[in-house]
């Protein structure tokens, strides 16, 4: 991903600011998703065709993960190792979502649409964060 594209997506030419914005966006979206799963695991479970207890557990995990990503985004200079951990976690989440859909979940039509859309969104966060991290590393080497 080029620095020009990153600059356009994040509305800044400063890679560190872009990285922090992508982390913050991830935290907001993931936190919202997690809170929804916690607050409405029963109705959402029925809508998506996913076990409510599974959604509740995922919601708790996502809410905690989002808090950590938000804390990382709030740092003036997010740790490269911590950002890599977030990128890896997002990539694993995206892959496991697709594997779960193919291997053992039996979702409703809404779930069959939601799960891949959610996986693609998380994979997009991973790609943006990784690209911004690489651009940040390039600017510190200069």
Automatic annotation (TrEMBL):
The entry's keywords: Membrane, Transmembrane, Transmembrane helix
Transmembrane spans: 21-40, 52-73, 85-105, 111-133
Protein's recorded name: Integral membrane protein
Provenance organism: Streptomyces kanasensis
């Amino acid at each position: 991903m080029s620095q020009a594209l990153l600059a356009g997506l994040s509305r800044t030419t400063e890679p560190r600011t872009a990285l922090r914005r992508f982390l913050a966006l991830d935290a907001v979206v993931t936190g919202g998703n997690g809170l929804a799963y916690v607050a409405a695991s029963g109705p959402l479970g029925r809508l998506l065709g996913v076990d409510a207890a599974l959604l509740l557990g995922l919601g708790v995990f996502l809410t905690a993960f989002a808090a950590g990503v938000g804390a990382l985004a709030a740092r003036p200079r997010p740790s490269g190792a911590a950002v890599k951990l977030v990128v890896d976690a997002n990539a694993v989440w995206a892959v496991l979502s697709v594997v779960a859909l193919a291997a053992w979940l039996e979702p409703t039509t809404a779930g069959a649409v939601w799960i891949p859309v959610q996986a693609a969104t998380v994979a997009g966060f991973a790609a943006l964060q990784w690209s911004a991290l690489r651009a940040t590393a390039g600017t510190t080497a200069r």
